[in-house]
Amino acid sequence: MKASVGDLALFGGVPEFATPLHVGQLNLPPFEDFEASFRDIFRRRFFTNHGPLVRTLDERLARRLGVRHAICVANGTVALMVACAALDLRDEVIVPAFTFPATVQALSWAGLTAVFCDVDPYAQTITAELVEPLITERTSAVLGVHLWGRACDPDRLLDLCRRYDLKLLFDAAHAIDCTFGGRLVGGFGDLEVFSFHATKILGSAEGGALTTNDDELAARIRTARNFHGAETFAEVALRINGKMSEAQAAMGLLALDHLDEWGARNRELYHRHQQRAGSLSGVSFLDHAGAERSNYQYCVIGLDAALDLSRDELRQILEAEGIHARRYFFPGMHRTPPYGDMSADPDRPLPVTDRLCALTLQLPLGSGMDTRQVNRIWEVIEFCLGHGRDVRRALDSARQGNRPARPLTATS
Ligand code: T4K
Q1: In a 3-state reduction of DSSP, which class is residue 184?
Q2: Is there a smaller number of Cβ atoms within 10 Å at the N or the C end of the chain?
Q3: What are phi and psi of 74, to 5 degrees?
Q4: Which atom, in ligand 1's list, is nearest to the CA of 328?
Q5: 329: preceding bond cis by omega (within 30 degrees)
Q6: What angle do CA 253, 259, 260 make, to 5 degrees?
Q7: What is the DSSP letter of 335?
Q8: 82, 84, 197, 248: which to mutate for ligand 1, most atoms within 8 A of CB?
Q9: Model confidence over 102-157: pLDDT tens digits?
Q10: Which atom of ligand 1 is nearest to 99's Cα?
């Protein structure tokens, strides 16, 4: 418990958490289960190229998500690249700038041009209304991102895309086990893309999957992810080695066994964050789950621009306390080279994206955490915001060299 500004670790006090709390905590099944699974892989001497575990994971995912096809690949970024090739996208793709770089970088790897769309201030996703004015004769597709697990409205976007003869795909990297209108993410648009990175609730160290209900598209995906196309005879010009290994699939299958349990744990932590944030003025909690089913893997807050402390100052203080909050996503992709820079771009204003990039903070939530730790995170935040002017003076003083203040690490 902090009683004075001097108790803050940034100014020489004892850090609240001796072992830092991260966002993106690992969700790990019991080690013996890994051992058994890996022993089987070594016994079979079959390590990759669509082995039995990858095929089982494909089938189990498809069943769980209620789709005809789930096709596992090496990671979520490759999944997006494969999606572009399988859909034969050309020229321009409309995409939010408020996303992880991979969403946009995959388009560049496929030789496509990203056209950045602003997001809805409440949902933080693109909408049909925001997309429509950006459509030109060069547009071939719309790529929505189900940010934090909250799905874009798939029906209105599909209606728009069908009217303009555009493909519709979704980056569902955050959205395994999440619903829109009670329907599970996985079967929306032409296809959807998942990430099973280690930091995701369903992790296979690195990994990802594409899901679709379209048989012909599924064949094209299988060809695009396997350089010589022997898997299917679909003609796809752009191909890559995007195969998932048996080791990744083993981890993914074990994680799938625990998905419900981990979602329930996250839910409890999420609601405690929500409760604590709700009692603090100047802080808004993004309830991305709302009434939908969610994996609850992210705690996202927005800070009022009028607070005595900026988002980045608060983050600096929290980091010194062992609370490694992240500025996902800063800067927006429209301000990230080679797509843009930090200078204002009056021709392509994305005011909501800019505001979210400046004020959003993601707080730790996940495995190994309990609600008492969530409370302790909020006690530090409450102290800082409640003593904003004093903390601000101490920060200014430290900047002028009068007091020690730990530098912030370079990560966003
Ligand atoms: N689309 C969207 C919307 C995405 O968010 C992502 C990835 C993708 C596409 C692409 O999917 P993949 O190609 O990655 O499958 C992390 C993840 O690496 C990335 O998968 C994720 N989104 C993104 C939101 O977060 P970084 O570069 O910020 O990760 P890093 O290494 O700073 O890790 C975040 C925190 O997790 C750290 O503070 C510590 C903790 N951590 C991390 C790792 C790797 C651990 O505790 N253990 C670990 O092994 O991207």
Answers
A1: strand
A2: N
A3: -65, -35
A4: 24
A5: yes
A6: 140
A7: G
A8: 197
A9: 999 999 999 999 999 999 999 999 999 999 999 999 999 999 999 999 999 999 99
A10: 3
Probe ligand 1: pick from 22, 23, 25, 100, max atoms within 8 Å of CB? 100
Enumerate the H helices of 66-176 as residue ranges.
Answer: 76-86, 101-109, 128-131, 154-163
Q: Are 185 and 212 in contact (CB under 8 A)?
A: no
Write out the two tokens for 167.
Answer: 């493909």
Q: Report H helices in 279-326.
A: 311-320
- How does strand 69-73 pair with strand 208-212? antiparallel
Q: Which residues contact 191 (CB under 8 A, 6 or more apart)?
A: 83, 86, 87, 169, 170, 210, 211, 212, 214, 217, 221
Pocket of ligand 1 (CB under 6 A): 22-26, 75-77, 99-100, 102-103, 145, 171, 173-174, 195, 197-199, 208, 324, 328, 411
DSSP 132: G
Distance (angstroms) between ligand 1 centre and the Cα of 380 equals: 25
Give me ligand 1 centre to Cα 405, in Å.
28
User: Model-level pTM?
Assistant: 0.95
Cα separation, 29 vs 71, in Å, equals 23
Q: What are the CA-CA distances from residue 293 to residues 179, 220, 260, 330, 371 (Å)?
A: 5, 31, 11, 27, 21
Mention every residue, 6+ apart, whose C-beta is less than 8 A from residue 12. 6, 403, 404
Rounded to 5 degrees, what are φ and ψ at 339?
Answer: -85, -20
State in Å: Cα 253 to ligand 1 middle.
20
What ranges make up the beta strands (E) of 249-373?
283-285, 299-303, 323-324, 360-363
Percent of the chain past pLDDT 90, that is, above it, reads: 89
The token pair at 318 is 């929290």
